[in-house]
Structure formats: structure tokens, C-alpha cells
Write a structure and sequence with these properties.
Shape: flat
Distance between the termini: 52 Å
Largest sheet: 7 strands, antiparallel
Helix content: 10-25%
Number of helices: 6
Structural class: mainly beta
Strand content: 35-45%
Strand order of the largest sheet: 9-8-12-13-14-11-10
Number of strands: 31
Radius of gyration: 28 Å
Length: about 525
């Protein structure tokens, strides 16, 4: 954690030990890789990705990037020279030709002199931007059938994207914002944008918009991290500075663990980021590794580092107080890595607490075992397949009952649900589904009823959401009990949808609801 260096990585511990750090930039079982030299200043990883996704050879990719750098500089200069007559610019599909739109004849000569191709248009880009700004201001009036809007410089219009059958909604929205018909084009596309915020071990997060720590492991409803990173009530944002969640529980000193409960925009994933090459590594359980085992950690400051487990049940005397029950390793770490994930193979081991040294000289680092965190807080680890992992007992005692067998279909009898509309799906801990079919339905107002049936061992939250002020907002919520979640609510006319969030277990469910 950057804010408090003495409680994060870099503290001096009471007992010194081995200080050599293994800094293999990959997870256990992989050979370390040397960075390939850049070509024309471009990293080989970028060229490889362009080759994969754009079907380019390395030479073609380098040539395209050179043209794009020239185009960027040329557009900057022409935009200043053309002023209000500048209508936008774009590269051809092969990246070889730069076209610049101009709203007057005088600008055409300037564009040709700069080596680009001019195109006469009816209006400058500033006028189009003004139209889009009016749509932005009226965005709360857009129906959920409208996916968005943008300036299309190639067509010299503002485009409103509407789902099939909702083109009239798009035109009404544009007219309500005071837009001229000739300047706005409605495009039909089967798009349903949604936030794509994943919770992944090793990712950075910020506490109260100040200190930075790292995510440990995804659990149902949020993630675990270090206790010294925050206190109950502290708010978190992701590395993208988007509101993420709240510290629901924390313990430090004595222990060094915390649970952050995330909001509905974030989806806990059973993976850990590998900052050595940008990939992710699956988490498939939390079986505790023995002393001497290889172990790797991921943190938002120094990425992935590996070493060996040296001792368990270690006590560390931090300046803020003593912490017991930690695991000692010869892996290096630095401030900001606090709370990050530790893996042995694909098994979760713990979250980074503190240590001595750094990743330049090497050091010793301690982690809080993850199974203790799960048991103390009654949390369920989210694994790569979306299946909740059975909690492993901590070293030295305790037993865990075997996981219950989950039947493939909802039980019969009074747990069956019936309604005007029925949908089914498969849910797992940490996963979210939207019904019906990822979309929404409209009702004229009045009473709405819903019933969700799930198998034994599957626990879910069912939410009814109404589209209000440009977003779906929860108006009613129920958590399943004995395999059933029921909702009855009076509501106004509008667009609604159901959101099914898995809390524990996995299996098929059936949702029946009224849509009158």
C-alpha cells in the first residue's frame, strides 16, 4: 500500500532470515522468458497482437504504425490550420491513406499539400460535436433500446444506435434533443453494451481515492485482501477509478485480512493476473502447499514473482502491532503489492501482508493464509470454472464437510415456479445473468410477481430492475431460501429486467414472472 509504507511491503521484521529472492517473471512450471528487442520502437508483443488480429506480417505492422504516426501529426497540424472548416479525418481500411474532411474549398488545397486526400462535407466537426453534446445532455431520456450515439466523420453525421425494431425510438430521442433530421442518422445494430469490470487477483484497487493495494482472490460477492489496506466502511475504486465496493470486514494487527464487498458493476472472476505477460492464471481451489513448495504471487507494483515457502505460523512484529499465523517466503515484494494473490500451481494460498527488502535486492515476504480468511468470514472462493471451491481447513486442525451433491434440475413440489413468462439458465457462485435473455420487458404498471426455483445447494439473489435516468436500477430484491426466491412489487409503467446473482453452489434454475 503506497500510503503506509511501514505496514505494506518494505517493513523490517523482527526475525531476519534468508534474504535471497527468486524473481522468475512467470508462474511456477514456466520457463523464464527474455524480452525480445523492439522493432522501430514497437514492442514485439504489440506486433504479434497486430499480426494475430489484423492478419499482418511484422513488416506490414511496422509500416502501418509508421503511417499512423505520420497521420496523427498531420491531423494535429491541419485541424489547427482549418479551424471551423475541419470536418474530421480517418485512415483507409488498409491504413495507407489519410482522408481529411473540409467544409470549404480553401481547405482542400491545404489538405493536398500535406499529403492527405480532401473530402468536401456540409458541416465541420465542431457542429457535429455540438449535436452530440445535446444528445448527451438528454441521455436520461433514452430508452434501453438505444445502445448509444457517436459522431461518424466518414458520413458527416451523428449516429444513434438502436436495437432492431426500435428505430422509431432513436428518431424520437434525437428529435427530443433538438437535433436536425439531416444531421442525425439512426443505425440498427443488435448491441447491448454493459460494463466489463472483472475482479481479478493481483489487480490494483484504491482505498478512499488515496492508498493503493492489490486484490487477493475473488470470493462470492467481492474479494479478499490485506487487513492493513482498509477498515470497515472504507470505499474502494478499481484501477480504472470506477466505484467498486466497500470494506465489509477487516482485521489488523493480530491478523492481516479483509473482505471487500463489490457493487453490481463488478464480477468476481476465479483468476489471477500475470503481469509478466498480461495473461491470467486459473484458480481452481485452495489446497495448502507444504513448506519447501514453490509459490508465486501477483501484485500491482512488481507483478509476478516466485520463490519457496520457508515456514508457516510465523509471527511478525510490525510497527503497528504483532501479526501471527503468517506464512514466510523468500519472494520479494514492494509497497502496493499488499493484499495481492499467492498461488501454488492453481491453488490459492494467501494474500500479501508485509516483508523486508525489495525486488531489486531481494527480500522476505509474508502472507495471510487464505483458508483462514474464508472460514473466519464464511466466504466462498470463486474458481475459474465458476464453481465455488470447498473451503479447506487451516493447518493444524478443523474439518470441512464434503460438498453437497447438486441435482441437475430444480426439485419438484412446492419449489416449482409458474408464471406468465418462463426462462431457465445455469448460475454459479460469483456469476450474474440478466433475464429475459439478457434483455428487458415493458409493463404498463401495477403488480409484478416473480418466482425463481433452484436446486438444493444453490443460493441466489433475484433482483427486479427498472430503467430510470439512463440506467437499470434495482427496485426489489429477494434471496433464495429452501431453493426458492419470490418477489411481489407494485411499480409504475416502464422497462424492467430481472438480475440473477449466484451466491453459492451451481446448477440450473427456472425463473417465472408476470409481464402484463
Amino acid at each position: 500500500m503506497d500510503r503506509r509504507r511501514m505496514t505494506a511491503i518494505g517493513v523490517l521484521v523482527a526475525a531476519a532470515g534468508l534474504t535471497a529472492a527468486v524473481t522468475v517473471p512467470s508462474f511456477a512450471g514456466e520457463e523464464p522468458r527474455r524480452a525480445a528487442p523492439a522493432t522501430d520502437g514497437v514492442a514485439p508483443e504489440v506486433l504479434d497482437a497486430m499480426g494475430r488480429d489484423l492478419s499482418l506480417t511484422r513488416d506490414q505492422a511496422v509500416k502501418r504504425l509508421r503511417t499512423e504516426r505520420w497521420a496523427a501529426g498531420t491531423v494535429t497540424r491541419l485541424r489547427a490550420e482549418l479551424g471551423a472548416g475541419y470536418g474530421g479525418s480517418w485512415l483507409s481500411a488498409d491504413g495507407a491513406t489519410l482522408t481529411v474532411a473540409v467544409a470549404d474549398a480553401a481547405g482542400e488545397a491545404r489538405v493536398k499539400a500535406a499529403g492527405a486526400v480532401p473530402k468536401r462535407v456540409a458541416r465541420g466537426v465542431a457542429e457535429l460535436d455540438a449535436v452530440k453534446s445535446r444528445l448527451d445532455a438528454a441521455g436520461g431520456a433514452a430508452s434501453p433500446d438505444i445502445a448509444g450515439w457517436y459522431v461518424d466523420v466518414t458520413d458527416n453525421t451523428v449516429v444513434v444506435v438502436a436495437r432492431p425494431g426500435a428505430e422509431a425510438d432513436g428518431r424520437r430521442f434525437a428529435a427530443a434533443a433538438g437535433s436536425k433530421t439531416a444531421m442525425v442518422r439512426v443505425r440498427t445494430a443488435d448491441e447491448a453494451p454493459r460494463p466489463l469490470f472483472d475482479v481479478r487477483g493481483g489487480d490494483a484497487f484504491f482505498i478512499n481515492n488515496a492508498g493503493r493495494c492489490s486484490v487477493g482472490f475473488s470470493v462470492v460477492g467481492g474479494f479478499v485482501t490485506a487487513g492493513h489496506c482498509g477498515r470497515p466502511g472504507d470505499r474502494t475504486t478499481g484501477s480504472n477509478r470506477v466505484a467498486q465496493g466497500t470494506f465489509a470486514a477487516s482485521s489488523f494487527p493480530g491478523d492481516d485480512w479483509a473482505f471487500v464487498r463489490v457493487n453490481g458493476d463488478w464480477t468476481p472472476q476465479g483468476v489471477v493476473t500475470d503481469f509478466s505477460d498480461g495473461r491470467t492464471v486459473a484458480v481452481n481451489g485452495s489446497t495448502e502447499a507444504p513448506v519447501g513448495a514453490s509459490i508465486c504471487r501477483s501484485g500491482s507494483t512488481t507483478g509476478t514473482r516466485c520463490g519457496l515457502v520457508q515456514a508457516k505460523n510465523a509471527t511478525v512484529n510490525y510497527p503497528e502491532g504483532t501479526v501471527t499465523g503468517l506464512t514466510r517466503t523468500n519472494v520479494c515484494a514492494e509497497p502496493g503489492d499488499s493484499g495481492g494473490a499467492w498461488l501454488s500451481g492453481d491453488q490459492a494460498q494467501g494474500v500479501t501482508s508485509g516483508g523486508s527488502g525489495d525486488c531489486t535486492r531481494g527480500g522476505v515476504t509474508f502472507f495471510q493464509p487464505v483458508n483462514e480468511i474464508l472460514q473466519r468470514n464464511n466466504l466462498t472462493l470463486v474458481t475459474a470454472g465458476g464453481q465455488p471451491a470447498p473451503t479447506q481447513p487451516p493447518a493444524g486442525g478443523g474439518e470441512t464437510a464434503p460438498p453437497a451433491t447438486v441435482p441437475p434440475t430444480p426439485p419438484a413440489g412446492d419449489t416449482e415456479c409458474a408464471g406468465q413468462v418462463s426462462r431457465s439458465g445455469r448460475i454459479a457462485a460469483g456469476r450474474v445473468q440478466v433475464q429475459p435473455d439478457g434483455r428487458f420487458f415493458r409493463v404498463p404498471g401495477g403488480t409484478q410477481e416473480a418466482c425463481l426455483a433452484a436446486p438444493d445447494g444453490v443460493r441466489v439473489t433475484l433482483e427486479l430492475q427498472r430503467f430510470t435516468n439512463g440506467a437499470f436500477r434495482t427496485v426489489a430484491r429477494a434471496t433464495s431460501a429452501d431453493g426458492v426466491a419470490r418477489l411481489t412489487v407494485e411499480g409504475p409503467a416502464g422497462a424492467y429486467r430481472y438480475r440473477v446473482a449466484g451466491l453459492s453452489g451451481s446448477g440450473e434454475y427456472t425463473l417465472a414472472f408476470s409481464a402484463r
